[in-house]
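U., I forgot to send this yesterday:
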Amino acid sequence: MLEQSNTGGCLTTSYVMRRFLNEKHSLAKAAIIWIAISSLSVLALAAFEYRSGVQELSDKASATETLLAERLAQHDAHLSALGAVVRMSPAEPSPSIQGLSENILTRYPRIVDIATFRLDAGAARMVRYGQAGGAEAKDMRLLDELPKLSNVGDIAARAVVGEHAYDLFKLVEPGRILRLRIDANALLDGDKTPQDYSTKLTLNNETLALHGATQSAILAATASIIMTSHTQPLEMEIRRKFGVGELVPLRLAIPLIAGLAAITWLAVSYQETQAERRRQEKRAALLKQEATLAHAGRVNALGEMASGIAHELAQPVAAMLSQSQAARRALNMGRQDILEKALDANIREAKRAGDILGRMRAYISGAPADIRMVPLSEAIAEAMRLIEGDIKARGVAVDMIVPLGLPAVPIDVVSFQQVIHNLVRNAADAVAGCSSPLITLEARRERDGVAILVADNGPGIETGSLHRIFEPFFTTKADGMGLGLPLSSRLIERMDGSLEAHNDNGATFIIRLPLGELS
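Result:
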């Protein structure tokens, strides 16, 4: 009874601890989800506020463009009216021009100066109009600020550097130029620029005026206006800056985050309750299946092992059978030389079968591979020597591109030869029936190792099967076992290499092996 009581206490303690840990896990999970959802919601809110601000910017830009177009049209109208009066006043200073200029300067403060220029033999007589003291005349040399106007009625605009203004010139008649100077700051109503906005006005890439916000912001949007006036080709940039408080207003963000916290906690709590119930149900089912799955796994591994051994030994046994039949014919013919060659080949294939069995035992037991440094060209030549007879008998041409200067690589010679043998045999099967069957075997140096390519000019590998060809027991051949390529891939991996396949005018298999030195 004492033992039962102690056990019950341990179980109760364990349950309490597990419940406590689950609650901590739920709290942490809810916090992570809440942070993620809150972040996304805040970003969505910021995106909405940003979009609203951009729309406001667009509306302001449209209104500003309309206002600016009206004012530029007024300037053109003033030029036309003043030009007409100047043409009717050959003698200057002219009271008519003075009166009209005073009226324009009074009603349009952005026009700060009106003047005429009479050009005569490299000099000019300038008369300024509209000032309180009356017209002011002054003789002067021709200045670079006067543009070259060829035809009567031509108009040119030029920025006044350093004065935030620009001049409008018009040739009213031969030798007489009218000028209006416009204050760019007054043109933009810079004193009315909202706090979060800034404006920039340029003429022919010269900055005329800058107004508005200068403080830093995390985000900004810009609208550009290019005036279509041919007389005053002004360009304007309106920039709106967004602060954190504007993108994420607290009056909206705080209720949103608090509500998401409550919803997240309720959702996670419900999800954890349902998950715990499902875990208890699955645990009982898993315990029941565990023994069956373990037994099935052992049986499956045994079957795969046996199939692999049979597949590996099939090639040397077939070769021994072929050489034995050749030996019998040589014996009947009395050809001692052929008989000796056949027996030597049988001995070689028997040793090869023994090597394969030894390698399979080492592979199954987990023993390390027999890695040796071998010149790559020699290893490939020996592998091809074992299969060249079969390839010639099939009438398949082999194009060998194996430079003699290739470095030595650390490989298991028997395994490497077996992989080359499998890939070349598969290529020969693939080109069977082709009009000009060809297998290309190429070896080349790469940055960190070497690559051996085995390619054929057959139909290639079906696209749907390309990603499965290295799966055990998957085959596209009618009489295939689906073990050659998976075993080849594993053998290359034991040499720290890789085996890959793709289609390129036929199937191409690439073995990549690293360079290295044995320790």
